[in-house]
Design goal:
The structure holds 2 protein chains of 2 kinds. Chain A contains 15 helices and 10 strands. In chain A, a hairpin with a 4-residue loop joins strand 6 and strand 7. In chain A, helix 1 packs across helix 12. Chain A is elongated, with a radius of gyration of 33 Å. The two termini of chain A are about 35 Å apart. By secondary structure, chain B is of the alpha/beta class. In chain B, strand 7, helix 6 and strand 8 form a beta-alpha-beta unit. The longest helix of chain B is centred in the last third of the chain and has 18 residues. In chain B, about 45% of the residues are buried. Classes of the chains: A alpha+beta, B alpha/beta. At the A-B interface, helix 1, helix 11 and helix 15 of A face helix 2 of B.
Chain lengths: ~400, ~240
């Protein structure tokens, strides 16, 4: 063990109360740091999950058809406006191949073809607008977790059945087993039996969404065997842009990722992250100030000892090393202690704010406390904070000390 | 035969404060031999401590040269001077200046640490032997704060000898001790000088120390007194 390390350790051990105080200061700073990380990251995950829990991460849709300009002649200036055609609803034919392609990509967890469109639901005199989505049987819960959100009935759809939101059910005064008449924007009507009523925690979906099986939706929206879109869920939601780009290239379809469609959420998360970073920055700044002032005091208090060490042939570099090592040890051990306390504190808060339904009252995720990063930053910061006191200590003139 | 361990020639030391220059040492020429036990005497403010600091490589002279065991100190940079001091010079101070957080044996070992010895066990054994030699075999692992003033000063003597230096500079080593303890420490230093052949230069006001020295160097107003000047000083 280098003697600088041994002396630094001895100095820390001998100044018990001061050492306990400075370790506590660093630990508290790291508790703040890790708690903020657990809170901000937990909040980001909660918000993201709330938003994308009911969304596909990547959506494949038919590419818009732009009519070809027939009058283009080389060398001539063309004065023609090209308008998008009013052709029938765009649809994806041969979609099973695309589904297989998507399923073969790494990171893709679920793929579901769907048909969607708008229409009205009529029940007696009441008519309400509705957004109808049809999935293949067994795939109803692949994009939205309907199976766990059913409050009445079941989510398993058969042909001629429909799932509606709890708000719509209340509005229409219906429940499972009853019939509704659905009319699509293509003018097709069909009577459907309510198989289940869901509550997905999203007001818009609870009020205006209805889910049927794929063939029922294909009939309502006159799509034959085609689908409107292919929806994809990913293991890593933030890989959506890359996966979308790859899927677009592989299928020739329009691939839209959730991040592009929710730019404001990203902005909000970034702003929230910046706020958290600011708090973490000040926590680290406090650690730096605390360590620097503690070691500065130590350098002044031990001035006489340092002078004697210098007279015995201890170099300036070694004196610097003794103080920098103290900073390193304070940073490392204090932050490890703080990380442990921070983890415990985050767990405690997560536990005491747990709601009866299992959701968290405070979106703290103890697993996202950035403990390793906090330890690394605090150790480096405390080591750097020791440089000024170390320089002052190494500049002690032994003659002054001896002659005092 | 070259047994000169320390040679000082034309040494001056002056401090400048703006336009005012204060000369502390002027024209010092001295030569000391291995195994000598020399007292450096002079009144307060005569320049003893400054001379000791320069000989101990803690202070640079304004002019002149210090040659220690054949090395001209002016040719060494700060790093080399520090290493040189560690290897060749031992200090004993009036107020012992031990490191309070360490035990007696750790204090004695301390000067060996910057050498980063390959055999710490041997260093420890030497430190224990030195403590035994100064009569503190039963205080090896005591915190120095638990020792008496005389014991602390004996630890300081052992510490000064740890690296087997060529010279030991002692600044009023008995000045803070009672007469009996001071005599004990002085006798110890004299014995070690005779036994180890180490050159001791002891700065003191105490004429009884001078009486037990091989030679006395008297200094006044920054100058070394010669012949009749010494006699005049003694008569005065």
């Amino acid at each position: 063990m280098p003697f600088e390390f041994a002396i630094a350790l001895r100095y820390l051990r001998s100044g018990r109360l001061q050492t306990v105080l400075i370790f506590s200061g660093v630990a508290v700073g790291i508790v703040v740091f890790t708690f903020m990380a657990a809170l901000i990251n937990g909040l980001a995950v909660t918000l993201t999950n709330d938003v994308i829990g009911n969304l596909a991460h990547v959506r494949l849709e038919p590419a818009p058809r732009v009519p070809r300009q027939l009058s283009e002649v080389a060398g001539l200036r063309t004065l023609l406006a090209v308008q998008r055609g009013s052709e029938p609803r765009a649809a994806i034919n041969g979609w099973r191949t695309f589904v297989q392609t998507a399923e073969g990509l790494p990171g893709v967890t679920r793929v579901a073809a769907s048909v969607s469109g708008s229409g009205f639901i009529q029940r007696g005199e009441k008519i309400v607008p509705v957004s109808v989505t049809g999935y293949e049987p067994g795939k109803e819960s692949d994009m939205i977790d309907l199976a766990d959100r059913i409050v009445r009935g079941s989510s398993a759809l058969a042909s001629g059945e429909v799932l509606i939101g709890i708000t719509m059910a209340d509005e229409l005064g219906v429940t499972t087993g009853q019939r509704l008449r659905v009319r699509s924007d293509r003018g097709r009507e069909r009577a459907l039996v309510i198989r289940g009523v869901f509550d997905v925690g999203n007001a818009s979906l609870n009020e205006r969404a209805a889910f049927t099986d794929l063939s029922t939706a294909q009939g309502l929206f006159e799509l034959g065997g085609a689908v409107s879109r292919i929806e994809v869920k990913l293991a890593d939601v933030f890989s959506a842009p890359a996966v979308a780009e790859r899927l677009g290239a592989l299928t020739g379809l329009d691939a839209v990722d959730w991040i592009k469609e929710n730019a404001r959420l990203q902005d909000a998360l970034r702003a929230q992250g910046s706020t958290g970073d600011l708090v973490k920055f000040f926590a680290v700044l406090l650690i730096i100030i605390a360590v620097a002032s503690q070691l500065l005091l130590s350098a002044l208090r031990r001035r006489s000892e340092i002078g004697i060490m210098r007279s015995m042939g201890v170099s300036r570099a070694s004196v610097t090393g003794i103080f920098v090592t103290q900073g390193f040890l304070i940073g490392l051990l204090g932050s490890v202690l703080g990380a442990g306390l921070g983890y415990g504190f985050a767990n405690f808060l997560a536990l005491v704010t747990l709601r009866p339904d299992g959701s968290r009252g405070l979106p703290v995720d103890p697993a996202l406390g950035e403990y390793g990063l906090a330890i690394a930053i605090a150790t480096v910061a405390a080591t750097l904070a020791a440089v000024l006191p170390a320089r002052i200590a190494s500049g002690v003139d032994p003659v002054e000390v001896i002659q005092q | 035969m070259n047994d000169v361990v320390l040679r000082v020639s034309g040494l001056t030391k002056a401090y400048r404060d703006g336009e005012v220059e204060t000369k502390v040492l002027t024209g010092i020429d001295l030569e000391f031999r291995r195994g000598e036990f020399v007292a450096l005497m002079g009144p307060s403010g005569s320049g003893k401590s400054t001379l000791l600091s320069i000989l101990g490589t803690l202070l640079k002279p304004t002019t002149g040269e210090v040659e220690l065991v054949g090395n001209r100190l002016s040719a060494l940079d700060d790093h080399d001077v520090t290493r040189f001091r560690n290897q060749h010079i031992g200090f004993v101070f009036q107020f012992h200046h031990l490191l309070p957080d360490f035990t007696a044996v750790e204090n004695v070992i301390f000067p060996s640490l910057p050498r980063r010895s390959a055999d710490p066990g041997r260093d420890h054994a030497r430190a224990v032997e030195l403590l035994r030699r100064v009569g503190l075999a039963d205080r090896v692992d005591y915190r120095v704060t638990k020792l008496s003033g005389g014991q602390k000063q004996r630890v300081a003597v052992a510490r000064a000898l740890m690296n087997a230096p060529d010279i030991i500079l002692a600044d009023e080593p008995t000045g803070n001790l009672d007469r009996a303890t001071g005599d004990l420490v002085l006798s110890l230093m004299r014995e070690l000088c005779d036994e180890l052949g180490t050159f001791f230069l002891i700065s003191t006001h105490d004429e009884s120390i001078a009486a037990r020295s091989d030679r006395v160097v008297r200094i006044r107003d920054g100058r070394v007194l010669q012949g009749e000047q010494v006699e005049a000083t003694l008569e005065h």
